[in-house]
Structures are given as structure tokens and as C-alpha cells.
TrEMBL record:
GO biological process entries: proteolysis
UniProt source species: Reticulomyxa filosa
Coiled coil regions in record: none
Protein name: Caspase-1
Domain Caspase family p20: start-end pairs: 1-67
One Pfam family this sequence matches: Peptidase_C14
MF terms in GO: cysteine-type endopeptidase activity
Length: 200
């Protein structure tokens, strides 16, 4: 039914909840390992052409290894002693990949150049990074070689990221031996400015 999408679904949402292990695999009830990538690829644009223009959302609730998060800090609370602040080791990361796991990219600079150009052109008008990423994806698709790219982002953050331009300060370091020349240069500069004001 999904191959034809007769009901014209707008999106596909798959929720996987169970046991998992390293390598992003689902552990089945009979102890077999089923890679999440294998499930995901069943719905890719080649195998499921009817959903190629639909968002495919995977919500996956499984273990991805055997590591246990370490206690990041211990907070001293007035009158209560110490309280553990359990923060996952990998909290606060945003990973942006030029393509998905297992794939090559063609033009090695296309992604980097597009990221740079998008950030430079959009950060001054307050675009959040998430919106910039959408533009990066769109711009790459329009360019030659864009079919090699499938920009992937993974994050463990709970906030939007925006860029702000820092105020720059101009600092001149002058050696003591150059001080006399520097003074002369400043005097000449002021004289030019003064003459320009008088003549205009």
C-alpha cells in the first residue's frame, strides 16, 4: 500500500522501541541483530518512490552501546548537602555531516563553501542555525554535484543557535623605537584632515 501511496500520506513516522546495541542495531526477541540502517533504507527514495517527497521521521528508543553516562558534577545545595547533577556526557553537541553514514561525497568543497556562504550572508539578519541548514540543503541540491550530498544533522541540544557579530577593536602595537615615526605620521594625518576640511 505504501509503495503506491494511494491515501496520499504527507509523511511517514516510524517509532522503534526495544533493545539495541552498538552499531545502531535492534536486538530482536530471538537474539538476532537488525541494523536500523536496514529498516531505514527500506523507505529510501529508490525503494519507496511514492514517499520521496515526504518527510520520513524515525523516533528510535533503544540502547546504542553499553556505556553508562558519568556524573558530570556534584552541586552543593544550602542546607541539603551535595546533590548529584546527572548530565549525559554527550549533551550539548550538534553534528553536521555532509552526507549520511556509508556514503561518499563528490566535490569535497561544495558543502564547506555552501555552509560558509550561507552563514556569512544570513547571520547578520538573525537566522538561527537550524534555518541556515535548511538553506544549505536547498542550495546544494540546486548545484552541480548536489546529488552526492545528503546533509545530516544530529543534535543533543535543547536550544536554538544564532550567531552575533562581535564588536572589533583596533589595537596597534608600537615598539619604542618607532614611537617618533608614529607621532610624525599622526601629525601628518591630522594636517591632511584639517586641510581637507578647510578646502571643502
Amino acid at each position: 500500500k505504501l509503495h503506491k501511496n494511494k491515501k496520499q500520506y504527507d509523511a511517514l513516522i516510524i517509532i522503534i522501541s526495544g533493545h539495541g546495541d552498538e552499531g545502531d542495531v535492534l536486538v530482536t526477541s530471538d537474539g538476532e541483530y537488525l541494523p536500523i540502517d536496514e529498516i531505514k533504507s527500506s523507505f529510501d527514495c529508490n525503494r519507496m518512490g511514492s514517499l520521496k517527497n515526504c518527510p520520513k521521521i524515525f523516533i528510535i528508543d533503544i540502547c546504542r552501546g553499553s556505556n553508562v553516562p558519568q556524573i558530570a558534577s556534584v552541586i552543593q545545595i544550602k542546607g541539603k548537602g551535595k546533590e548529584q547533577n546527572n548530565i549525559h556526557n554527550n549533551n550539548g553537541f550538534l553534528m553536521i555531516w555532509s552526507t549520511t553514514k556509508g556514503y561518499q561525497v563528490g566535490d569535497l568543497s561544495l558543502f564547506s563553501e555552501t555552509m560558509k556562504n550561507t552563514i556569512i550572508s544570513k547571520y547578520k539578519i538573525g537566522y538561527p542555525l537550524s534555518q541556515m541548514l535548511r538553506e544549505v540543503r536547498e542550495n546544494i541540491k540546486k548545484k552541480g554535484g548536489g546529488e552526492w550530498y545528503c546533509v545530516e544533522s544530529q543534535d543533543t541540544i535543547d536550544y536554538d543557535i544564532s550567531f552575533q557579530q562581535r564588536k572589533r577593536s583596533c589595537v596597534m602595537l608600537i615598539q619604542k623605537s618607532d614611537l617618533t615615526n608614529y607621532k610624525k605620521w599622526i601629525i601628518r594625518l591630522f594636517e591632511r584632515i584639517k586641510n581637507k576640511i578647510i578646502t571643502s
